[in-house]
Amino acid sequence: MNDSSKDPFWAELEYKLKEDLDNLNSSPGNYLPLLNELQTLTQLTVEDDFRSSIPNEILKLLLKIIQGPLCVPLSLECARTLRNCCGKNWESFPDTWSQLLNECNDLLKSFILKEFPVEVIILTRVILQCVGNVLNTQANLSHTIWESLQSQLGKLISHEDEKISLYSSSVMFGMLRNSLTIREEITTHRWRDLTAELISSSHRGILYSQFSIKLFLCDHNMLENLYNFQELHTKLLLLHQISEFSPECEDMDVHNWKFFSRLFQERASLILRTCENPSMDLEAMEATSLVEILAKSSSGDACHRELFLDDDLLVTTIDLLRSIHSLAQSGSNYFTTINDHFGSVEPHPALNFKCNLVRLLGNLSYKNPSTQDRIRELDAIAPLLECCNLDARNPFIQQWSILAIRNLCEKNVANQEVIGSMTRKGVVQPSLLEDLGMVVEESNSGLSVRPSESNRKS
């Protein structure tokens, strides 16, 4: 259709819509003629040429139909046309945006508490797409949409219909991307349930929820606020997602690396209490997830530059490695090396923990003479060498150990000489075990861990 014929076409279509709408008002059950016209309009607005030229008068008619008594087939076709047009044709109907958003929000509110029939599910999807298109073209409307939809978003994001969950998370991401204020607000305790649903949705693989989580990684302090308000099981889901994103998150704010390092140092010793405990200790699993994030992320330049300055992290990691190594040699427990790679390994918080400690030490010592020297001074070279054995509880620990030794020795003659002249001298007492009132003893039968004298007397 050429430009000269568009005006008469739209005028005729507007006339038909008004006529069919009048007939519907007089005969409420006879909506098929109007539905046929609306379906034709929906098909037309799939094409860029038509949705860029649709008159404002017709868009207002569509809103008028939606505002009338709910007829799902009619509302669905109106919503489809508005969805198609609001991204491309925004300048032609700026006076209707508030009305459009209000109607979309009212429809969502009326549906969310009900058991959705199929046609309402489809309508809900289209309405969410419509709101998402508005956000993509009019960032300044983010706060208006947030105020209108905030109480419904948690239910929509967690909805069992995958597309409703996807489209509502797209709306959530659009608002968070457009507004720093909304990102700050959503990390407060008031919105803990909503952010928990967002984290859960991200864990289920909903793409836009994952985009939202990545936004918080790049913000100063917001990730820490978001994390601290969550229940422990939600924290573990969030940590799992962040681990999946690592080490690609080069834009992650430096404060967040410091936060994870500090949190790991606070939680590190919790893993030791799982030595003979078969349960999936959630607090210990938090420490497991944190060291995995640090181990993965420290291979990236931004994280490496931040973490290799953290001597407390280095000391904690070394002491923890020595403690786990000593416990592993003291008898049969969940830190004991398993050489049978064909047998089953029972799920446990300590799985792969030792491997990630080695990986973290290797990354921290990469082209870092001060860390190389510090690891030698803290007598950590011997435990690293002893990690070069295969262990079914720590897949790839042999490879990470070899890499760590390589990084320790690169351009470091002192470390090379220590390894070259190493002989067995005895047992280094890990301070973490000492803090727990335990000591490591060596005998002809091997190593053992027992309560210290002062602890037994008390």
Task: Describe the SSE topology.
Blueprint: H1 6-26, H2 32-44, H3 48-51, H4 56-67, H5 72-86, H6 97-112, H7 118-137, H8 142-157, H9 162-178, H10 180-186, H11 192-203, H12 207-217, H13 222-228, H14 232-245, H15 254-267, H16 282-297, H17 301-307, H18 311-329, H19 353-364, H20 369-377, H21 381-386, H22 397-409, H23 413-420, H24 431-435, E1 438-443, E2 446-451, H25 453-457
Antiparallel strand pairs: 1-2
Q: What do these coordinates show?
A:
The protein has 2 domains: 137 residues, Leucine-rich Repeat Variant; 210 residues, Leucine-rich Repeat Variant, CATH 1.25.10. It has 25 helices and 2 strands. The termini are far apart. A two-stranded antiparallel ribbon has the order 1-2. Helix 8 packs across helix 11 and helix 18 packs antiparallel against helix 19. It has 458 residues and is an all-alpha fold. Keywords: Cell cycle, Cell division. Belongs to the ataxin-10 family.
Strand element count: 2
User: Uncertain spans, ≥5 residues at pLDDT below 50?
Assistant: 1-5
Q: Which term fits the overall shape?
A: elongated
Class of secondary structure makeup: mainly alpha
How are strands sequenced across the largest beta sheet? 1-2
